[in-house]
């Protein structure tokens, strides 16, 4: 009897696991509206599923996007990106429950990573757009008129918080930055890109530029301004300065190149201010490198004017670099710890600059006084003559 009970219990657990597994798959799901979809796909992140019917003759795509385990304080979205595999450039369908209990479903073109999902017209036609919320599951229904003949689309799906009736920015880590991939509408085959390639390129772009333009260049400037005051550091300070700025320029050009690559992959997304400042920095940095080849000798009559140009352009590059790095932070929206870390580095460099400025001025003034004292004629207390009054020594007989 006991063995029979154990067998029944084991079968019960096995059946519950089977039913649970079935419930978590898109296959066999029955829509309450009696809609039928010929194909479906279990999306790998965010408890999401996509059902669709695709008519290749009319290029019409009828979809039902399901997002389970959701509450009324969350929004969900499913999008097609006609230009790349990332979020920027996506043409999104968005849905959430409003404070009055009604569902809102609308279209939103994603033009930047800092989007607040404003309503707008998409690059393709959308009809029969609606949404439901039941049993902690939001479903978006829509019919899409695809604008190209390709049967493979780049898809992005997402969720985030709702405050009042306003959508908030979604999380920027974990599954929320992996919920993207490609989908073949005919075969049903899908692949999850996870955004890894693009995220890696963005991170490389940010790190290279922050380290080069934002850290190494200011350090090189500090070396040139303050170490040359110490006579023992001459000419080592010059070679340190040139080495630091050369490394910064080479790494910065690599970062600038990754930025161009990212821009070419998202032609519909333009960060005009960030891009313009980046081009200006590259031009000024290149000009500084070539100007080094034309540096006059210290005693040349044009060296004074060259120094003015060199300092003016150099400090302009540093200021523009820091501004553009913070614009980059606003675009990429990384974890706050990275922005705070960079702020800490800049603050440390600024404090060191203030301290060195005061100390080097002290050394310069002290040195000037010593030089002036060395050139003064000897005076009182026997410093000029032997009697303290400027008298000459009596010559012996």
Automatic annotation (TrEMBL):
InterPro entries: AIR12_DOMON, Cyt_b561/ferric_Rdtase_TM, DOMON_domain, UCP037471. May act as a catecholamine-responsive trans-membrane electron transporter. Its main location: membrane. Binds 2 heme b groups non-covalently. Keywords: Electron transport, Heme, Iron, Membrane, Metal-binding, Signal, Transmembrane, Transmembrane helix, Transport. It is a multi-pass membrane protein. CDD domains: Cyt_b561_FRRS1_like, DOMON_CIL1_like. Gene3D superfamilies: 1.20.120.1770. Residues 46-160 form the DOMON domain. This is Cytochrome b561 and DOMON domain-containing protein. Pfam families: Cytochrom_B561, DUF568. It comes from Salix viminalis. The keyword Transmembrane helix applies.
